[in-house]
Amino acid sequence: MLTAREDETLEQLLSMLERFVKERLIPNEHRVADEDAIPRDIIEEMRGLGLFGLSTPVEFGGVGLNMSQEVQVAFVLGQTSPAFRSLIGTNNGIGSQGIILDGTEEQRRKYLPRLASGEIVGAFALTEPNAGSDASSLRTTARREGDMYVLNGTKRFITNAPEAGLFTVMARTNPDEKGAAGISAFLVEAGTPGLIIGPSDRKMGQKGTHTADVLFEDCRVPAAQLLGGVEGQGFKTAMKVLDRGRLHIAAVCVGVAERLIRESLRYAMEREQFGKPIAEFQLIQAMLADSRMEAYAARCMVLDAARRRDAGQNISTEASCCKLFASEMVGRVADRAVQIFGGAGYIADYGIERFYRDVRLFRLYEGTSQIQQLVIARNMMREAS
Ligand SMILES: Cc1cc2nc3c(=O)[nH]c(=O)nc-3n(C[C@H](O)[C@H](O)[C@H](O)COP(=O)(O)OP(=O)(O)OC[C@H]3O[C@@H](n4cnc5c(N)ncnc54)[C@H](O)[C@@H]3O)c2cc1C
Fold first, then answer.
1. Which residues line the pocket of ligand 1, CB cutoff 6 A?
2. Residue 66 pLDDT more than 70?
3. Is 6 a catalytic residue?
4. Do 169 and 155 contact (CB within 8 A), yes or no?
5. 76 burial class (0-12, 13-18, 19+ CB within 10 angstroms)?
6. Strands 195-200, 276-277: pairing kind
7. Which residue has the least CA distance to atom 6 on ligand 1?
8. Using CA positions, which residue lies closest to atom 17 of ligand 1?
9. pLDDT, tens digit, for every residue of 76-129?
10. Does the model's pTM come out above 0.85?
């Protein structure tokens, strides 16, 4: 396993990952989609490479990447099916960051090394059937009983729930406080009596990665599992986790867009109509150029926001700008890729239609495009007043 504090080591990590993506992941894309599962041997290789602990600090067994380094890794991982990235995504992001940012020392020591090694998979349970974009209206309760909390409620669309060993669960500890201040975060281990995982959801895309409902029925959790040991901080933790996650997702969008642009260009230069490669037609060139321009803009935005975060700046606005622009951008790039491939773009064997379906998710989770717009505008108004 590599650590990547130094630029030279980062270069090694990136070139090793590029090789892994090209030689192991891309050749298995169709298989993962057909079987709706990532092969065991590939999961083991991902563990061996340290991919589950990219953002976990070195002292807890991770690679210890800062944000600028992490987004460069995400650019590379984005070059293949998003399902591979999603498998390691929760351990590097929403499934571990709450513990890294706000966990007690004991919680960090207990869980981070196991998350970083990939021994367990982490999941983040915020969304509920009646609380999606309006997450602070969540209804799952955590009632204190002696030195235990008793959780009741339903979480929806929880990524990696079927595989997860540890859930970061947002629940209301203060029923009188209807908003964000009444919410706390808990670390709940899989197998805890009263924690029930529903059947995997049937999704539009990203086959190979799974989401499911997570139900809590009088699920008793020791008080020591309250994240950070403080009630009422859960929503703040969730928002901090999502700020970071949004930047990571934006970087993945850049990676996928760059892959699709490369494939579109190659196809356009090979495919001949009217006696010449379709890349010679200016209407095709316009699509290629627009995609290249937009992916480049997103790449620059992501690198800038990551640098600002590493410098200690609050990047709530920038993270939302990146997520909004990059996820919408990759949707347009995927649409143009289908167009450039013509009929072949619609046929599964070419893989382009799979990416078209896969990238649709990026505009929905970790805050829809509309929610990013609201965050940006609210921050603008706050700054101005
Ligand atoms: C595959 C997948 C994986 C997911 N993984 C996780 C996970 O691991 N953990 C987790 O907690 N959640 C997860 N989610 C949930 C995801 O974050 C939510 O689906 C998302 O936040 C949107 O919530 P919603 O689906 O309830 O839509 P809604 O909130 O009902 O939104 C419906 C529409 O209304 C719009 N809308 C809502 N409010 C406003 C407003 N104020 N102004 C303008 N428009 C608005 C939305 O933008 C959207 O277009 C996942 C979802 C999917 C599909």
1. 124-127, 132-133, 157-159, 203, 211, 361, 364-366, 368, 370-371, 374
2. yes
3. no
4. yes
5. buried
6. unpaired
7. 158
8. 365
9. 999 999 999 999 999 999 999 999 999 999 999 999 999 999 999 999 999 999
10. yes
